[in-house]
Amino acid sequence: MQVGRTEPERTDYLVGEDSAQFDLSKQKILSWVYFIGVAGVVAYVLYAAWIDSSTGFGKPFIEAVSSISESPE
Length: 73
Fold this sequence. Notes:
GO molecular function: 9,15,9'-tri-cis-zeta-carotene isomerase activity
Radius of gyration: 27 Å
Oligomer: single chain
Order of helices and strands: HH
GO cellular component, one term: chloroplast
Organism: Olea europaea subsp. europaea
Mean pLDDT: 82
Shape: elongated
Number of helices: 2
Transmembrane segments: 29-50
Distance between the termini: 67 Å
Keywords: Isomerase, Membrane, Transmembrane, Transmembrane helix
């Protein structure tokens, strides 16, 4: 750096989106329908594969863990 010479002020800062900003008028109905559909499918698969005691793995998992541990919790 030379004496008496100043560096120019930086103006090329990185700019990103404001993730906390939500504007309902900018939302698309199709995006919400897609989101609700995907969330519904995930919830159904989670219920069928884990929570439902007749088809899921939740009950066998709890029984396996209970056989290892004597704690009722």
